[in-house]
């Protein structure tokens, strides 16, 4: 079947998540400090890499456990403080160049959708790109959908399981994540917007020929 739609994980594909991840790292370090646990930037980065390497479903919880040395009381308090610090933070940084690419795809009739539109709608609205996405994608067979996401465990594996063709956008906290098995292995890997465009063009050309 030829592809008719592209479905996006918002965080990590459309959104750089750089400001959000920096804020989370800073909040975790500050919360540890308030509990008398001194952590520096390097320790936070190492804890982040360890959480990604462990495929921790909740990377932030895993980071806090690492930094608190497993002490349950400190872990609970740091988690609470971290949530209080970033709970109301809403930073959305559209990936540079992605809006132009989305417009080109729309112009040639591809259907665009996002995972969890109810949750992400307001952000897409503020970024001025909400009108590019529809829920039409929900009615299409999975085999007609390309999926773009940054996490292998949380994004790529479930999309693959549904029968979608998947593209890993290596970016941000999960950029070093590598597949553990075939179920987590994407059909293509990209690291920037031009690579994403080329990968999708190649996949479309392959099925329509
Ligand atoms: Mg993501």
Can you offer a commentary on this structure?
With 209 residues, the chain is an alpha/beta fold. It has 2 domains: 5-17 and 93-208, HAD superfamily/HAD-like (Rossmann fold); 18-86. It is built from 9 helices and 5 strands; from the N terminus they run βααααααβαβαββα. A 5-stranded parallel β-sheet has the order 2-1-3-4-5, sandwiched between helices. It is elongated and about 60 Å long. The mean pLDDT is 95. The site of magnesium ion has 7 residues, from helix 1. Magnesium ion binds at residues 9, 11-12, 149-151, 155.
Task: Please write out the topology.
Elements: E1 5-8, H1 10-14, H2 18-34, H3 41-53, H4 59-67, H5 72-86, H6 98-107, E2 111-114, H7 117-126, E3 145-149, H8 152-162, E4 165-169, E5 188-190, H9 193-208
Parallel strand pairs: 1-2, 1-3, 3-4, 4-5
Helix pairs in contact: 2-5, 3-4, 4-5
Bound molecules: magnesium ion.
């Amino acid at each position: 079947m030829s592809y008719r739609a592209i479905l996006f994980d918002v965080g990590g594909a459309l959104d750089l998540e750089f400001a959000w991840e920096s804020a989370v790292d800073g909040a975790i370090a500050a919360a540890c400090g308030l509990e008398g646990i001194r952590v520096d930037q390097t320790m936070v980065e190492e804890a982040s890499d360890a959480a990604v390497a462990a495929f921790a479903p909740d990377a932030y919880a895993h980071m806090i456990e690492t930094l608190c040395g497993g002490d349950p009381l400190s872990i609970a308090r740091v988690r609470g403080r971290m949530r209080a610090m970033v709970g109301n933070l809403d930073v959305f940084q559209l990936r540079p160049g992605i809006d132009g690419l989305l417009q080109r795809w729309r112009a040639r009739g591809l259907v665009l959708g996002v995972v969890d539109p109810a949750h992400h709608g307001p952000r897409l609205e503020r970024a001025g790109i909400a009108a590019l996405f529809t829920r039409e994608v929900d009615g299409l067979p999975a085999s007609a959908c390309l999926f773009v996401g940054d996490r292998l465990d949380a994004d790529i594996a479930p999309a693959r399981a549904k029968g979608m063709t998947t593209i890993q956008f290596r970016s941000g906290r999960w950029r070093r994540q590598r597949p553990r098995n075939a179920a987590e292995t994407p059909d293509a890997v990209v690291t920037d917007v031009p690579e994403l465009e080329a990968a999708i063009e190649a996949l479309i050309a392959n099925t329509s020929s």
